Amino acid sequence: MMNNKISTDIEKAVSILKAGGLVAIPTETVYGLAADALNPEAVKKIFAAKGRPADHPLIVHLNDASQIEDWAIDVPAEAYRLFDAFWPGPLTVICKKAPKINDIVTGGQDTIGLRVPAHPIAQALLTAFGGGLAAPSANKFGRISPTTAEHVFAEVGNEVDLILEGGRAEVGIESTIVDFSTKDTRILRPGMISSHAISRILGYEIPIIGKQISTPRVSGSLASHYAPRTPAELIDILDLPTRIADLSQQGKKLVIISHLAIANTGSQISINLPNNPLDYAYEIYAALREADNLKADRILITKVPEEWQAILDRLNRATY
Ligand code: TXA
Ligand code: MG
């Protein structure tokens, strides 16, 4: 690797973290920007590096569920059923925070987000570090989450001390967030662990309420998030030909992103994505970055099926 910030050295990452530095880490969902969750000065650096408002809480990553009670209190029995079913994996739970947890991590809230990632390098790092790592996605606030070490470098290369190389993130979009901190258990952010899969384990239908949240506290629920710099539209495939014709007539350079075969007319560039949610999720953020780098005037993304709930959620936020 030519870039000397990108490394596979886990011991080096641990010593940076212990010294209060920032290390970008691979996870199976997207890359995270990690700091020692018990070191407030280190955690502050995360907010500065991302340009993230201080009232947006961070997820704390642990190497297994046995540490949960160090970080959270009143963890309901049904949360443990989800840990058994989905951890390690792309699931985050929100619970009441343990009193000793610093407000900086939780954005001043009395709840905490916890996740046990499955990525082998994240696991090895957490085990070697021996504690919790606060880590949001390793992108600038509001931008597309990174799914490769190179994406991380492009986002926060100057702000991190080290980027741990872990290959391409397998899932490709952020974890499902389930909120157990109130009586009405709900999904705050859909992910590739679907509401159906969670409902099956819980034994009741769990609602997704992320979209209705108007407070900025769950940044992933802000209307505009995960967004490319180029204006992007989400559009029905049936409306695409007219939209292309209109915009082309105005001399606009277009990039089309679609899971359906689009005929290339020469006036636009098409990025074709797989026609199934698993592979689509794996590729979508890289495709949005690629589309951005093409410096087009407009990105047109064709609508995906409603059943692709987590992907549709991200596309809605990436577009206007
Ligand atoms: O897959 C993921 O979850 C990735 C990887 C790195 O683990 N992390 C991630 O973190 O997406 P971040 O900070 O970009 O998004 C986490 C979301 C934010 O919208 C945050 O507001 C919300 O989780 N969150 C964290 N703690 C919370 C809490 N106590 N209450 C409500 N929302 C919370
Ligand atoms: Mg994020």
Please describe what this structure looks like:
The protein has 320 residues and is of the alpha/beta class. It folds into two domains: 6-212, DHBP synthase (Alpha-Beta Complex), CATH 3.90.870.10; 232-318, Threonylcarbamoyl-AMP synthase, C-terminal domain (Rossmann fold), CATH 3.40.50.11030. Helix content is 32%, strand content 18%. It is built from eleven helices and 15 strands. It has helices at 10-18, 40-50, 68-71, 77-86, 103-106, 120-129, 149-156, 195-202, 240-249, 277-293, 309-318, and strands at residues 6-7, 23-25, 32-36, 59-61, 72-73, 91-97, 111-115, 133-134, 162-164, 176-179, 186-189, 232-235, 254-258, 268-272, 298-302. Strands 1, 2, 3, 4, 5, 6, 7, 8, 9, 10 and 11 form an eleven-stranded mixed β-sheet that branches. The protein has a four-stranded parallel β-sheet with strand order 12-15-13-14, sandwiched between helices. Strand 10 (176-179) and strand 11 (186-189) form a beta hairpin. Helix 1 packs across helix 6 (120-129). It is globular, with a radius of gyration of 20 Å. The two termini are 38 Å apart. Bound molecules: threonylcarbamoyladenylate (TXA) and magnesium ion. Residues 136-137, 145, 220 line the site of magnesium ion (MG). The site of threonylcarbamoyladenylate (TXA) has 29 residues, from strand 6 and strand 7.
